[in-house]
C-alpha cells in the first residue's frame, strides 16, 4: 500500500545539499564531543581555572562554530525535506482502497473502519504511522476544511513546509542512486579522517607522557657530568653551578631560549614601522625653521632613549653576574668565561641566583607595584617553577653520586644545598642567614616555639639480638627524637585551614605534610692507624657496572684520599609525614667496619627543610673480632625506618 511516487526522481530536489547536510551534521557532533572533552580535561586538571577556559576566545569561537553549523544543518535538511514533500502525492482513495471519485459516505466509512482495523498498532503489520495516514485520508474525504486543503495543497493539513529540521532524515540513513554513492565515499573519508585524528591524538598523548617522564628523571649524561665534577671539597655554590650546567639542563634551556627569540622577533617585526619612524626623526632633528641643527642634543637624547638605558642596564647586570660567578667559581677564569659566553648557562645561573635571593626579590617594591597592575610576565614564573623542579631532581641525583663515593663532606654539602635552594637563602651555615630564618619562623608561627628544632633522647648502637658488636655486623642505631616545633606547626596549619575553608582533618591528613631529615653516620678507629681506605676490588664490588665509574682518575684520588672520619657508613633519610607528631624513635641500620677495635661513631642529623636546627653527637663502641665470639646464626632484618604516627618505625627502602 503506497501513496507516493519515487520522490528521488524529481528534477526540483536539491541532491547536492544532501552531502552538505552530512558534512555539517558530522562536524557539529564531532565538535560538540571535542568541546565536552576540553571541559572535562580542564576541570580534571584544575577546577579553579575551568571558568577562565570557558571564557577564552578559542573556546568561544568553537562554541559559535558549533551553533552556526547546527543551525545551517537544520536549514539544509528543511530545504531538502520541503523539496521531497512537493513530489509526494497524498491520495486518500488509494489509502482507503476505494475506487477514485467514490462519494458515498457509507462506503467511505466502511472502508475507513476496515483499514483502521488492519493498520491499528494492536494488529499484526499495523503501525502508528499507517494508522494516522488512514485517519488523515478519512478526514480528507469527510471534513470540509480538510477536503479543501487536500484539493488545493495535496494534503488535508494544508501546505507542508519546514523552516528548520534537526531530526536525522531518512534520506541520509538510506540514500539511493547517485546520492548513495557520494554519501558512501563521504562517510569513508570522514571515517579515515577520524581514524587519523585518533592516531595523532594518541601519538601526542604518548609523546606528552614521555616528556613528563623525562622531566621527572635525570638523564644518563647528567649523572656522568655530576660524577666527574663533584668533589669532597665542593661548596654549595659549586654544586649549584654544576647543576645549572648539566647537558640536559642546557639543552632544555636552549629550547626555551629559541622559543623566546621567536616570540621576540615577531614582536619586533610587528613594531618595526613605528621604530623606524622614531629612528628617522632622531637622525634628522630640525629646528623651528625646518633646518638641521647639527645634532647638538644627541647626547641628551641617548640618555633618555629607553633602548640605550636598557643596554646600559644589561651591561651592568652582566658585570654584576661576572663578579658573582667569579666569586662562586673561586675566580676560575675558565668557568667565568664559559658562563659569560654561554647564553643557556647564564640564564640557568640567573635562575639559581634568583632563587637564592628569593626573599629580596619577592619583597622588592617594584615587584609589589607591578603585581596589582598585571604587568608581571607570568611566563618567567612558570619557567622558574620548571627550573626548580628540574634542579630538585638533579640534587637527588647528586646525592646518589655522593652515596656511591661514601664522602661525608660532599653529602653534608648537598643536604645543605638542598635546604638553601628550597628556602631561598645564600648560605646554610652563616649566623646572619640562620638568624634571619629563625626570625621568619618566629614571626610566622607566633613565638620561639615555632622555630624548627629537635631534641634527642636516648641513643644507642647495638647488634639486634646480640650483646656485643662484632666487625662486619649489621648494627642498629636507635635515637629518640622530640620535635619541639610540632605544636606550633599544627596550630598554624589548622588556622590556615580554617581561613581557607578547608576541613582541618583534611589539612592534617596523610600526604598533606612533609618534613625531610638525614642521618649521616661515620666512624673513626681510636688508637690505631688510619686504614679506612677502600681497595679498588671492594669499590668495584660495591658499585658493579655503575655509571659512576666514568669519574676521571684525579677525581677518584680525591675521594680515596678522604680521611677515615669523613667516610660515610650510611646516609639514612627519614620523613615526618604527620605534622602533629611530637616524639618518636628512628632506627638506622648500617654495617660497622670490618677491622676490630674501639671506634668513635659520629652521627649528624641534618634537615633539608630548615636552617640552624641540625644536631650532632658521638658514641664510642668496642668492635670485637667475630673469631673471638661464639654466636648463633640469625637472619638479618633489612627493614629501614621512618617515624610513624605512633612513634614506631615503619618500613621504608633506603
Description:
By secondary structure, the chain is an alpha+beta fold. Among the domains are: 7-88 and 163-206; 92-153, DnaJ domain (Helix Hairpins); 452-532 and 567-629 and 638-654, Immunoglobulin-like (Sandwich), CATH 2.60.40. The chain contains 25 helices and ten strands. It has helices spanning 17-45, 50-54, 57-86, 92-95, 105-119, 128-142, 144-153, 170-173, 177-215, 220-229, 236-244, 247-283, 298-304, 306-328, 333-341, 343-356, 358-362, 365-370, 378-405, 408-423, 431-445, 486-499, 504-507, 536-542, 553-560, and strands at residues 454-462, 469-470, 474-483, 515-526, 568-576, 583-591, 597-607, 615-624, 640-643, 649-652. A five-stranded mixed beta sheet has the order 2-8-7-4-5. Helix 12 packs across helix 16 (343-356). The termini are far apart. Mean pLDDT is 77; it is low at 1-10, 277-303, 328-334, 532-545 and 634-654.
Amino acid at each position: 500500500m503506497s501513496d507516493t511516487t519515487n520522490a528521488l526522481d524529481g528534477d526540483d530536489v536539491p541532491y547536492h545539499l544532501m552531502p552538505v547536510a552530512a558534512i555539517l551534521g558530522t562536524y557539529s557532533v564531532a565538535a560538540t564531543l571535542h568541546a565536552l572533552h576540553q571541559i572535562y580535561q580542564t576541570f580534571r586538571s584544575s577546577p579553579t581555572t575551568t571558568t577562565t577556559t570557558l571564557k577564552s576566545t578559542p573556546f568561544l569561537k568553537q562554541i559559535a562554530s558549533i551553533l552556526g553549523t547546527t543551525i545551517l544543518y537544520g536549514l539544509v535538511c528543511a530545504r531538502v525535506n520541503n523539496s521531497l514533500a512537493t513530489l509526494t502525492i497524498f491520495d486518500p482513495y488509494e489509502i482507503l482502497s476505494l475506487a477514485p471519485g467514490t462519494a458515498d459516505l457509507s462506503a467511505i466509512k466502511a472502508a475507513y473502519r476496515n483499514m483502521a482495523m488492519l493498520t491499528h498498532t494492536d494488529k499484526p503489520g499495523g503501525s502508528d504511522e499507517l494508522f494516522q495516514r488512514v485517519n488523515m485520508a478519512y478526514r480528507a474525504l469527510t471534513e470540509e476544511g480538510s477536503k479543501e486543503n487536500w484539493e488545493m495543497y495535496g494534503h488535508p493539513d494544508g501546505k507542508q513546509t519546514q523552516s528548520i529540521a534537526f531530526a536525522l532524515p531518512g534520506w541520509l540513513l538510506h540514500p539511493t542512486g547517485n546520492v548513495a554513492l557520494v554519501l558512501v565515499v563521504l562517510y569513508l573519508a570522514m571515517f579515515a579522517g577520524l581514524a587519523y585524528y585518533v592516531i595523532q591524538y594518541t601519538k601526542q598523548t604518548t609523546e606528552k607522557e614521555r616528556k613528563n617522564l623525562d622531566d621527572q628523571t635525570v638523564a644518563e649524561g647528567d649523572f656522568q657530568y655530576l660524577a666527574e665534577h663533584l668533589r669532597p671539597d665542593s661548596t654549595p655554590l659549586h654544586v649549584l653551578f654544576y647543576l645549572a650546567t648539566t647537558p640536559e639542563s642546557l639543552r632544555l634551556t636552549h629550547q626555551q631560549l629559541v622559543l623566546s627569540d621567536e616570540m621576540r622577533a615577531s614582536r619586533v617585526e610587528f613594531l618595526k614601522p613605528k621604530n623606524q619612524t622614531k629612528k628617522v626623526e632622531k637622525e634628522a632633528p630640525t629646528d623651528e625653521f625646518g633646518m638641521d641643527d647639527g645634532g647638538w642634543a644627541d647626547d641628551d637624547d641617548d640618555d633618555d632613549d629607553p633602548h640605550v638605558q636598557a643596554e646600559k642596564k644589561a651591561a651592568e647586570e652582566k658585570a654584576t653576574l661576572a663578579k658573582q660567578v667569579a666569586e662562586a667559581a673561586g675566580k676560575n677564569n675558565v668557568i667565568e668565561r664559559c658562563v659569560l659566553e654561554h647564553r643557556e648557562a647564564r640564564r640557568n645561573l640567573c635562575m639559581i641566583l634568583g632563587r637564592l635571593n628569593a626573599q629580596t626579590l619577592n619583597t622588592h617594591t617594584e615587584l609589589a607595584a607591578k603585581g596589582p597592575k598585571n604587568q608581571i610576565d607570568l611566563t618567567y614564573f612558570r619557567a622558574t617553577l620548571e627550573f626548580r623542579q628540574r634542579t630538585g631532581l638533579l640534587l637527588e641525583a647528586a646525592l646518589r653520586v655522593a652515596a656511591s663515593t661514601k664522602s661525608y663532606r660532599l653529602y653534608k654539602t648537598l643536604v645543605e644545598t638542598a635546604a638553601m635552594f628550597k628556602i631561598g637563602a645564600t648560605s646554610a651555615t652563616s649566623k646572619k642567614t640562620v638568624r634571619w630564618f629563625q626570625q621568619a619562623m618566629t614571626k610566622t608561627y607566633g613565638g620561639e616555639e615555632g622555630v624548627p628544632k629537635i631534641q634527642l633522647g636516648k641513643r644507642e648502637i647495638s647488634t639486634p639480638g646480640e650483646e656485643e658488636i662484632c666487625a662486619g655486623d649489621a648494627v642498629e642505631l636507635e635515637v629518640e627524637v622530640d620535635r619541639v616545633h610540632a605544636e606550633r606547626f599544627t596550630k598554624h596549619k589548622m588556622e590556615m585551614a580554617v581561613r581557607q575553608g578547608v576541613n582541618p582533618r583534611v589539612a592534617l591528613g596523610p600526604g598533606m605534610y612533609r618534613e625531610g631529615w638525614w642521618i649521616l653516620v661515620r666512624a673513626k678507629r681510636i688508637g690505631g692507624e688510619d686504614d679506612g681506605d677502600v681497595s679498588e676490588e671492594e669499590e668495584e664490588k660495591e658499585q658493579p657496572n655503575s655509571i659512576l665509574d666514568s669519574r676521571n682518575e684525579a677525581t677518584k684520588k680525591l675521594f680515596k684520599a678522604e680521611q677515615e672520619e669523613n667516610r660515610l657508613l650510611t646516609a639514612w633519610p627519614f620523613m615526618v609525614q604527620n605534622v602533629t607528631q611530637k616524639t618518636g624513635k628512628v632506627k638506622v641500620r648500617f654495617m660497622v667496619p670490618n677491622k676490630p677495635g674501639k671506634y668513635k661513631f659520629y652521627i649528624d642529623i641534618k634537615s633539608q627543610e630548615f636552617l640552624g636546627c641540625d644536631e650532632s653527637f658521638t658514641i664510642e663502641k668496642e668492635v670485637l673480632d667475630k673469631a673471638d665470639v661464639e654466636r648463633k646464626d640469625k637472619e638479618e632484618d633489612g627493614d629501614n625506618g621512618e617515624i610513624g604516627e605512633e612513634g614506631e618505625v615503619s618500613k621504608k627502602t633506603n
